[in-house]
Fold this protein.
Amino acid sequence: MNSKQRKTLAEIFKTPAPSNIAWTEIESLLIALGAEISEGNGSRVRIKLNTEKAVFHRPHPQKETDKGAVMSMRRFLENAGVNKDGI
């Protein structure tokens, strides 16, 4: 994981959840963590990390992820065994 991906991970685990994380940065982090990402219908994105699976919607027309999606991503990462240190 590079420094930008570590920063994105730290942002996801911030309290309160920020609403200005670009979706592309989250996808980059997920790939660095070893997640499998596949396209779904429309703006849906299927993600599998370790044994955890989830479906998220890419934000549009804006590029930033809202607070609710950031909190959902945090829960997904925790359930997949990832903490704020990336372990």
